[in-house]
Design brief:
Strand order of the largest sheet: 1-2
Number of helices: 34
Radius of gyration: 31 Å
Distance between the termini: 100 Å
Largest sheet: 2 strands, antiparallel
Shape: globular
Length: 701
């Protein structure tokens, strides 16, 4: 087994080597792009599959009691600084390796079909392999310097993949927005790393925590400076994991291909921030002030993300804000010390969200031939509906992911989210209320997405009748809407519309191919059972609470997996299950019927209270809290105004003084040249006159 651990570096090396091979094929044999597509995808999938099997074997060795392994090689040796590179294998590393390789492999299999007809097919797999390799390298890193290098590689790959369709202006702007926003967090992370090195003299995780604890015990450290360094360090995860206030890049990142959205939101970029906090958890725990900041940043992000998600019309952006909210749950859990619950939710959410994004890709793939290829059409839920009839497998798998995110047992996210909710109530009741309310919003917006997409009747033909009903795409589907009234009146008088058979006059959505469906079906397995299995592992007594001890969590464990304990667990979950079902019920009342019948239903007296939701609340949510507009005003427009002011200052003041001096000299010379007649007597006269005037002025003064 020692040979395995010594060669664990092969896990990131295999996808990196695949990326190099694909890049070489693309560079040296550009004419063979079409014929070598399947070969390139086979190389990427095969190499990552090998890395996945090595990761599984490493995980099994950790489960069976293998010790933590560290391997180092000297990189830079100096009298004052010694930098080493290597890898660290512990339970946290093993779990993250499994997460990244499994989700990455499924996404690659899915992408083989999804991206088949794209001109950048080989380039996509080249970037995808490099992205996966960067995340795997980050997970294996034993020190802060190495983790920062791979941290930047992950950011670079996300830039390339978000802007994959760079000829589309929105995609080009989105990748730049993600890159710039993450540079803010990365600069803070670098300052934090350097600050803790100045305090402890080490970049290694274990040495850093031990030395910091000794300095803290002996009161040999400035606690204010340590808190500042920790906050700077936390800026990195704030940006990378899309936490408030640096979350603004995540919804725009949906401009990339859907498989990339699945990978970013499930197992790579946004998971990197959670991983770093988990890796540095022992250090953060020594700084209660920083832990409180982490906690409330997570709580605000969870609530904000859910509040914005409830009104989004774009399918992928709705899921993006869902990811933001769930990441807030994880940060919240870490901030209150629930290390195990945060990592448990990271795992369950990753598989559920990967399933949802790949399911949304299946829907978009089916909608594009009907409504067009622009995201405003193919991703707009207004033009969906009734897809369960045409895409039954996609609908069922998407429903599994929806129920998991809603927190319905026995699906995966129920077990992890419920633990966070319970711990938040114990930690601080108001925090528990925020977490529980956010759980209700989660159930509402996820059910809303499902109902609008898969239930009712198909509405894609409404876009084809754009000339007749031009304003249908602007429906708010939230409370007062005069446009919907007009459309209903038109439909009442339009027999051809009400009797329009989609099967005769228009294209119908169709189920995705078997490769894409295979990926969805595979992901339903962990989405359905990994939470239950994980919970049993948590209760299993293997040298005292298996996963808690395994993940270094000091928390009270349960003794056995008796049925009484299982029943008690479900009883404690009654509040969260109740709030989830309330959210689903409200979503059903709003969106469980045909969209164009909503207003008729809401006109009845029984549903009047649902109708009077303030439109200002809807506008605030739909416009993403006006945060982008605020940043645009605060940074973009103010910076442009400042640069314009500096340009005016430079052009008219500074240059004006210089140019004025030159002009004055020019005209002065022109005037004086007429007094230059070559007569010495004239020169003496002017000289004596000036001297006389000077003496006279001095005498008078």
């Amino acid at each position: 087994m020692e040979i395995l651990f010594q060669n664990i570096w092969l896990v990131p090396f295999f996808p990196f080597f695949a990326s190099v091979l694909l890049g070489s094929i693309l560079f040296f044999f550009p004419s063979s792009m079409i014929s070598s597509r399947r070969i390139c995808s086979f190389i990427s999938i095969s190499f990552l599959t090998i890395a996945m099997f090595i990761s599984f074997h490493s995980l099994w060795q950790q489960i069976t009691g293998s010790p933590i392994h560290q391997f180092f090689w000297s990189w830079i040796v100096n009298k004052n600084v010694i930098l080493e590179i290597g890898y660290l294998i512990d339970p946290l590393t093993s779990i993250m390796l499994i997460l990244v390789t499994t989700v990455g492999t499924i996404v690659m299999i899915y992408s083989d079909s999804y991206m088949l007809h794209d001109q950048g097919y080989i380039r996509f797999f080249c970037y995808l392999s490099l992205f996966t390799a960067s995340m795997l390298g980050l997970v294996l890193s034993p020190n802060l310097i190495q983790i920062y290098i791979f941290w930047e590689l992950v950011g670079m790959c996300s830039y390339l993949l978000i802007g994959f369709w760079f000829t589309r202006p929105s995609a080009a702007n989105a990748c730049q927005k993600a890159f710039v926003t993450n540079r803010i967090g990365d600069f803070g992370l670098l300052l934090g790393i350097l600050g803790f090195y100045w305090i402890t003299g080490s970049f290694e995780f274990q040495d850093l925590s031990e030395r910091f604890l000794k300095l803290l015990i002996h009161n040999q450290i400035c606690i204010v400076f340590a808190n500042i360094c920790a906050i700077f360090l936390f800026l990195g995860p704030i940006a990378k994991s899309a936490q408030f206030p640096l979350h603004i890049w995540l919804p725009d990142a949906m401009e990339g291909p859907t498989p990339i959205s699945a990978l970013i939101h499930a197992a790579t970029m946004v998971a990197a921030g959670i991983f770093l906090i988990a890796r540095m958890f022992s250090l953060f725990q020594m700084l209660p002030f920083v832990m409180e900041i982490i906690l409330w940043i997570g709580a605000i992000t969870a609530l904000l993300g859910a509040s914005i998600a409830i009104t989004q019309k774009d399918l992928k952006k709705g899921l993006a804000y869902s990811t933001m909210s769930q990441l807030g749950y994880m940060i919240l859990a870490l901030g209150m010390g629930s290390y195990k619950a945060a990592l448990f939710h990271l795992i369950t959410h990753a598989y559920s969200k990967a399933l949802l994004f790949l399911g949304s890709g299946s829907v978009i793939h089916s909608m594009e031939p009907i409504v067009g290829y622009h995201p405003n059409k193919s991703q707009n839920m207004i033009f969906m509906g009734g897809l369960r009839k045409y895409m039954p497998i996609t609908a069922v798998t998407f429903l599994f992911g929806t129920l998991s995110l809603c927190g319905i047992p026995p699906f995966a996210c129920f077990w992890s989210k419920d633990e966070i909710l319970i711990n938040s109530w114990i930690h601080f009741p108001f925090l528990g209320f925020i977490a529980l309310f956010t759980a209700g919003l989660t159930a509402f917006y996820m059910s809303r997405i499902y109902f609008l997409t898969f239930e009712g009747h198909f509405r894609g033909h409404l876009l084809l009748n754009n000339n007749k009903y031009p304003n249908y795409s602007s429906i708010s589907i939230w409370g007062d809407n005069t446009i919907l009234n007009k459309i209903e009146e038109q439909k009442m008088n339009d027999v051809s519309f009400s009797n329009m058979p989609i099967t005769k006059n228009f294209l119908r959505p169709k189920e995705s191919d078997n490769i894409m469906l295979f990926s969805l079906i595979i992901l339903t397995i962990p989405t359905s059972f990994i939470g239950l299995i994980g919970e049993f592992f948590l209760q299993e007594q293997i040298d005292s609470d298996f996963l808690s001890t395994w993940l270094h969590l000091s928390i009270n464990s349960l003794n056995n997996t008796h049925s009484e304990i299982f029943i008690e667990l479900l009883q404690n979950a009654i509040p969260s299950i109740t709030i989830a079902f309330i959210g689903i019920l409200i979503a059903f009342l709003f969106y469980g019927f045909q969209l164009y019948d909503i207003r008729i239903i809401l006109k009845s007296k029984n549903f009047t209270f649902l109708y009077f939701i303030p439109k200002s609340l809807y506008n605030w949510s739909y416009n993403k809290g006006y945060i982008d507009e605020f940043y645009d005003l605060l940074f973009v427009k103010s910076l442009r105004f400042f640069t314009q002011f500096l340009s005016f200052l430079d052009q008219w003041i500074i240059d004006g003084i210089v140019n004025g001096a030159g002009i004055l000299s020019f005209f002065g010379g022109e005037v004086l040249k007429y007094s230059e007649n070559g007569r010495i007597s004239s020169y003496l006269f002017f000289l004596v006159s000036c001297m006389f005037l000077s003496f006279l002025y001095s005498y008078i003064i």
